[in-house]
Automatic annotation (TrEMBL):
Organism: Pseudacidovorax intermedius
Start and end residues of each Acyl-CoA oxidase/dehydrogenase middle domain: 121-215
UniProt-recorded name of the protein: Alkylation response protein AidB-like acyl-CoA dehydrogenase
Names of the cofactor(s): FAD
Keywords recorded for this protein, A-Z: FAD, Flavoprotein, Oxidoreductase
Length: 387
């Protein structure tokens, strides 16, 4: 049966406008941080409608939608100021459990991701092991029916709010560093785990250091084969950069460009002298259009089950770069008032200008998080130049 994509889009649009609470849409529209409570509320609404996991197969509670439907979903939700799906559970560890988990693990972990009751974080990076992830040192040794974990993770987003962490641990020391790594699922309330906050330059607390001191984890919380966690890790990282994850980002940035252009035109009034600003914004828009073309190509590859080329790396890099330039342009336009209000309003009611400066500061991290731009350039150079 062929799918009527236009009717599908209309159904989603009607749902988004009617079902997403206005107070949550206002937060998204203003470009402000979405809280755990807001993410969870939206996840429950989607799950009640049967759309809790757009990318999962039907047999584990997903929609079974094809790739085009998933992209339309992301696009429509972003256009209507609905929060993006919380990626650590639905987009990262969920698909890994579906692919590598046992039936018992699927039954234990997946429903709690779907209804939003578990909030996951990612324990990959360590001090000294970021881009070179396979050099990680956090260890797990077997003791009867448990793994005993010792070591440290860093830059762990949302660890202080998470109920579960999926983490890479070294279960044996092999000659090749990619061997002997395993993927463990660990409840964050297990004795021996200490979470220490890292406050970022924008004043936000979402990053953490996480310490593991003789942490005992059920043996059957290991996903896939012991010592073969690198395969799961790579599967997860590849998914992190798939097109659906970037649709919402692109849509949001496109709207930010349009809003800034409109504001600049209003401020200039009859004088219409906002040429420099307009030029900078249109250059951003041109790059976003380029990213959209790459996204369309990648989507076509996915639909026809062709291997993805360098588009995911190129899209990730472009999004990060444009996000930084866009917030820089906005800050230039707002002027010193942004800093003044940011300082004055810290902890108090936020004003739009303060949101721009926070976003300006936060977007500095975008060329680092999820794989640095330098590493993406290496990927592209290796693929295109055969370096
Ligand atoms: C906002 C944010 C959220 C994050 N959330 C998480 C999370 O939830 N969980 C998690 O596990 N991690 C998380 N990270 C960590 C992130 O994955 C790492 O910061 C990233 O992989 C880079 O690693 P690093 O910080 O150790 O830097 P390094 O790898 O030490 O890199 C330092 C510098 O050297 C450059 N470099 C490194 N290798 C090469 C190379 N081969 N060629 C050229 N240049 C190179 C890098 O580009 C960078 O400029 C987060 C980071 C940020 C900023």
């Amino acid at each position: 049966m062929s799918i009527d994509y236009a009717a599908f889009r209309r159904e989603l649009e009607a749902f988004a406008r009617q079902a997403c609470p206005p107070e949550i849409r206002a937060v998204v529209a203003a470009g402000q941080k979405i809280t755990k409570r807001e993410y969870q509320a939206w996840q429950q609404i989607l799950n009640d409608r049967g759309w809790g996991a757009p990318s999962w197969p039907v047999e584990v509670g997903g929609t079974g939608w094809d790739i085009r439907q998933r992209l339309i979903f992301e696009e429509v939700m972003a256009e209507n100021d609905c929060p993006p799906l919380y990626h650590h559970g639905l987009g990262h560890i969920g698909p890994v459990i579906i692919r590598f988990g046992t039936p018992e693990q699927k039954a234990r972990f997946l429903p709690r991701i779907l209804d939003g009751s578990d909030w996951w974080c990612q324990g990959y990076s360590e001090p000294g092991s970021g881009s070179d992830l396979a050099s990680l040192q956090t260890s797990a040794r077997r003791d009867g029916e448990h793994w005993v974990v010792n070591g440290q993770k860093i830059w762990t987003s949302h660890a202080h709010e998470a109920s579960m962490i999926y983490m890479l641990v070294r279960t044996s020391k092999e000659a090749k560093k990619q061997e002997g790594i395993s993927l463990l699922l660990v409840p964050m309330d297990t004795p021996g785990i200490t979470v220490r906050p890292i406050r970022t330059i924008d004043g936000w607390h979402h990053l953490n250091e996480v310490f593991f001191d003789e942490v005992r984890v059920r043996a059957d919380n290991l996903i896939g084969e012991e010592g073969k966690g690198w395969t799961c890790a790579k599967f997860l990282l590849e998914r992190e950069r798939l097109p659906p994850a970037n649709v919402a980002r692109l849509a949001l940035m496109h709207r930010q460009v349009s809003a800034l252009l409109q504001k600049a035109a209003q401020a200039a009034g009859a004088r219409r002298d906002f040429g420099v600003l307009q030029h900078k914004l249109l250059l951003c828009e041109a790059e976003l259009q380029g990213a959209r073309v790459m996204m369309a190509q990648a989507t076509d590859d996915l639909i026809h089950q062709r291997p993805l080329g360098v588009q995911p790396s190129a899209i990730k890099m472009t999004c990060a770069d444009v996000a930084q330039r866009l917030t820089t342009i906005a800050l230039d336009a707002v002027g010193p008032e942004a800093a003044h209000r940011f300082l004055a309003e810290e902890g108090g009611e936020e004003l739009p200008a303060a949101t721009w400066i926070q976003n300006y500061m936060f977007t500095r991290a975008r060329t680092i998080a999820g794989g640095t731009s330098e590493v993406q350039r290496n990927v592209i150079a290796n693929a295109l130049l055969g370096a």
